[in-house]
Amino acid sequence: MTSYVVTSAPPNPNGDLHLGHLSGPFLGADVLTRHLRRRGHDVQYVGYSDEHSCYVPRRAAEIGSTAHRTARLFGDRMEETLSLGAMHHDWFTRPLTDEAHTLFVQRFFLELWEAGALEVQELPVFHCTPCDRYLYEAEVRGACQFCAEPSDGVYCEACGLPQDPAGLADPRCTACWTTPGTRTMRRIVFPLEQYRERLQEYYDDAQSRAEWRPRLRAYLEGLFSRELPDTAISREASYGIPVPLPGWEGHILDTWFSGIWGYVAATARLGEADGDEGAWQRRWTDPETRIVNFIGFDCSFSHAVLWPALLMAQGELTLPAQVVINEFYRLEGEKFSTSRGHAIWGGEFLRRVNADALRFHLCLTGPEREQNNFSMKEFTDTVSTVLAGGLEAWTDTVLDLLAKDFDSAVPTAAPEGPLAAERAALPGLVDGALAAETFSPQRAAAVIAAVVDRAVADLQELALLGAAGPRERYAGRLAASVELLAAVAVAAAPLMPGWSAFLAAQLGVAVDAGTRMPEWSALDGALVPAGTVLPTDVPLYFHELS
Questions:
Q1: How many Å apart are CA 69 and CA 139, to the nearest integer?
Q2: Which of 143, 298, 324, 546 gives a 20 to 30 Å CA spacing to 137?
Q3: Running DSSP on this structure, what letter comes out for residue 147?
Q4: Secondary structure of residue 401 in the 3-state scheme
């Protein structure tokens, strides 16, 4: 048994989560957590809402509210959406109402400060004269200094590179849209270049143990071809976690610095809820613990570069074993956009469709290695061909044949034919796709879809054999189809946990009370032994759009 901490990138509570959000870190982290748990590992899945982000007060101004109310409004909606999609964390911190987050961030900041790992520099900062405010991140918009794509003031979503302080091209204040000037400001900085060699050694070791996706590897190669930037971790502002030093009143800690400590704080709060306040420290200081971070590509700098270097500077906590990125998921060919309203909101959509249907489709079409597209037609095609027209048609047919020729009991004949071979191969294929080191829910979904397709194609021949009689002619083939159906229910549980538990119960396969999924070890033997009496039919589980 291995100890894991699985995390998903903290979402900004400036709107509900849309399908683009769900398709990446949240679904991926949930699927991995479920699979690892069923394989016997000790897994904690944690996260937090990025409530101190400067996107929150910007959104509050747009809707005529306050930052705290906005964070609560959209934080509640995000949690509701994650619950509707069966993707919620074991612990999800709400920092504005949970002081542990602030305490942990300030604690680790002070450790780094007292160890001499941080510097103070005078840096240029954008300043808007009409608004009389300094501009950071969400407060300034322009063109990336590296790729010229539209970007906010810190990280470019397109290329993932951090902008130099006041380095954004053609900047505009997002409140009044005038061109800001620049001033200098005293800021606390983390000297990243000092960690170059240790980071490169870390990447070599981590990538020898687990697959890091190609674009992240290419990103790191490009970033390390130049000098690593000194990274400012403080800013002058009133909204955020205060810098806990005398003489720094009115300065806050940047959320991009705070994030790694937010994961630690969430782990601590989960341990506290479980009655073990020291569990977080044992877990995070154990070099055998595997930390797996799920992020969108635009968070590559923080999770794959800055945060590992901060952990190196801190010196006691375990570095991530793997950083799993995803690309952008597009809607009908265009990028999902909260600000433009070009989105399908998760909460609204999950009230209209089956959550497992959406989970499976997002796994099948998600942007693992390249940008991909969500379309309603493709989603309804998945439901009609793989799920309602696939899994459910398969289930109905084998139950009908069992009822007609075998009094609903699984035949005593040994499973035979092509589906018996599919049954033997399925566990290895799904386990290989969902293992942490080679994680690909897209590959797992494709395996399952292909098995369903072949099983449905086999139904016609089964029906012909059944009609021709005698029943012994196809007993072994039918037994193989039933056994494979049960194996799909077990293997697909991380992708479709509700359907898996539902069908497993219908077929007499035990469902674990803790994970609420059938146990993986059940695949080692016959799932539906000969003589098992099955129902004559089962209720429909998947449904079309309402």
A1: 19
A2: 324
A3: T
A4: helix
The Cα–Cα gap between 67 and 97 comes to: 13
pLDDT at 334: 79
Angle at 296 between CA 295 and CA 302, to 5 degrees: 65
Q: How many CB atoms lie within 10 A of CB 39?
A: 17
Q: Residue 147: which of 222, 233, 231 has the closest Cα?
A: 222
> In this structure, what token pair is assigned to residue 82?
């994650």
Q: Round to whole Å and give the CA distance between 541 and 308.
A: 44
* Confidence at residue 544, expressed as pLDDT on a 0 to 100 scale: 55
Q: Identify whether the C-beta of residue 308 lies closer than 8 Å to the C-beta of residue 199.
A: yes
Distance of alpha carbon 258 from alpha carbon 68, whole angstroms: 18
User: Among 20, 87, 9, 49, which Cα is nearest to 340's?
Assistant: 20
Cα separation, 432 vs 366, whole angstroms: 18
Q: In what order do the strands lie in the sheet with 241-242?
A: 234-236, 251-253, 241-242
Amino acid symbol at 13: P
pLDDT at 327: 92
373: β partners: 330
Check if the beta carbon of residue 334 is closer than 8 Å to that of residue 20. Answer: no
User: Residue 99 burial (CB < 10 Å; 0-12/13-18/19+)?
Assistant: exposed
- Segments of the chain scoring below 70 in pLDDT: 338-340, 544-546
Pairing of strands 169-173, 140-143: antiparallel
Please name every residue paired with 331 in a beta bridge, in sequence order, or none if there are none. Answer: 334, 374
**Three-state SS for 266?**
helix
- Kind of pairing between the strands at 329-331 and 372-374: parallel
The total number of residues shown for the chain amounts to: 546
What six digits make up the tokens of 107? 């604690």
Q: What is the spatial distance between Cα 306 and Cα 150, in angstroms, rounded to a whole number?
A: 23
Instruction: Report the relative pairing of strands 290-296 and 3-8 from DSSP bridges.
Output: parallel
Q: What are phi and psi of 447, to 5 degrees?
A: -60, -45
Indicate the pTM of the whole model: 0.96
Q: How many alpha carbons fall within 13 Å on the CB side of residue 318?
A: 24
Where is 215: in which H helix or E strand? Answer: helix 214-223
In DSSP terms, 294 is beta-bridged to: 8, 324
In angstroms, the CA 509 to CA 483 distance is: 11
* Helix ranges restricted to H, 302-350: 307-314, 346-350
> Both tokens of residue 478?
């039918």
**Contact assessment for residue 530 and residue 412, using Cβ atoms and an 8 Å cutoff:** yes
For residue 43, the 8-state DSSP code is E
Residue among 440, 464, 306, 314 at smallest CA distance from 366: 440
Query: Which residue(s) pair with 387 in the sheet?
Result: none
- Reported as type and span, the H/E element at residue 244 is none
Q: Which of 27, 259, 263, 63 is nearest to 155 (CA)?
A: 259
Rg for the chain, CA atoms, rounded: 26
Phi then psi for residue 342, to 5 deg, are -90, 85
